[in-house]
Amino acid sequence: MDNMVLQPPDVETASEGYASRFQGSAGQYLLRAQERALLSLLPHGSPLTVLDVGGGHGQTASVLAREGHAVTVLGSTPEAFHRLRALGLQHRCRLATGDLLSTPFADASFDVVVSVRLISHMEDWQRLIAEMCRVARGAVIIDYPRTVGVNALTPVLFGVKQRFEGNTRNYRSFSDEQIAEAFDRNGHHVAARVGQFVLPMVVHRFTGAGPVSRGLESLAARVGLRDRFGSPVMIRADRRTAGQRSASEEE
């Protein structure tokens, strides 16, 4: 679905209203699952230079800074840093304001580029991927809702989600092939995927109980559903090495 929010998507995710979705034990469970996915995909080694595109919500910047990485958070406007400042992260990260689709950075400026909770609300999502690939020296890590599993019912269930959450937004879901092809066109290949939840996140928020969410998702993972249908899925796309052919060239 196309995003209909008038303000930039990263300003919305930096709001207190958005942060309220992650309160309570169920909300904390969702954030911990996201953190585990991010850390499992992050390249190992020395402290990395990381660009967090649209990360004013602080969900990823807090994790990356805690792990000792040099984090730059790019926001579309100063208002996009509202939540990050409320968390005190402005003292642990560099803040930069600019066009998310035309960032103020040179090619290959960062070891890793991360963007979480953004691409599904961007109209020109392919340009976002191209720009992240341009400034990444190595990997790009993003998350996105998939068009498989229960998430395939989004057009039907969105009204229910909106009534429950109140401030939810329209968003676009993607097939894994769509995302992989976009990265392939920009010199990257998808190297790893981590599905996060089999049940829609709104269901976990509705239960309000982290232990219940953990139990349901653990069961789904044991029977192989999370890898196949988990959404949102977080992926790492690595820059192709010299001589490595693109997926289209291999066909």
Highest-level CATH class: Alpha Beta
Strand content: 15-25%
The fourth-level CATH homologous superfamily is Vaccinia Virus protein VP39
Provide the residue-averaged pLDDT.
86
Count of individual beta strands: 7
Strand/helix succession: HHHEHEHEEHEHHEHHHEH
State the helicity in percent bands: 40-55%
- Count helical runs: 12
CATH architecture: 3-Layer(aba) Sandwich
Distance between the termini: 31 Å
**Ranges with pLDDT <50 over ≥5 residues?**
1-5
What gross morphology would you assign?
globular
GO molecular function, one term: S-adenosylmethionine-dependent methyltransferase activity
Organism: Natronocella acetinitrilica
Domain Methyltransferase type: 51-137
InterPro entries: Methyltransf_11, SAM-dependent_MTases_sf
What does this structure look like?
The protein has a seven-stranded mixed beta sheet with strand order 3-2-1-4-5-7-6, with helices on both faces. The longest helix has 18 residues, at 24-41. Mean pLDDT is 86; it is low at 1-5. The chain has a single domain, classed as Rossmann fold (3-Layer(aba) Sandwich). Helix 3 (24-41) packs across helix 10. The relative contact order is 0.17. The chain is 41% helix and 18% strand. Helix 5 (82-86) links the parallel strand 2 (70-75) and strand 3 (94-97). The chain is α/β, with parallel strands linked by helices and 251 residues long.
Element layout with pairings:
Layout: H1 9-13, H2 16-19, H3 24-41, E1 49-53, H4 59-66, E2 70-75, H5 82-86, E3 94-97, E4 110-115, H6 125-135, E5 136-144, H7 154-165, H8 176-185, E6 188-195, H9 201-207, H10 210-222, H11 225-229, E7 233-239, H12 247-250
Parallel strand pairs: 1-2, 1-4, 2-3, 4-5
Antiparallel strand pairs: 5-7, 6-7
Organism: Natronocella acetinitrilica
Protein name: Ubiquinone/menaquinone biosynthesis C-methylase UbiE
InterPro entries: Methyltransf_11 (IPR013216), SAM-dependent_MTases_sf (IPR029063)
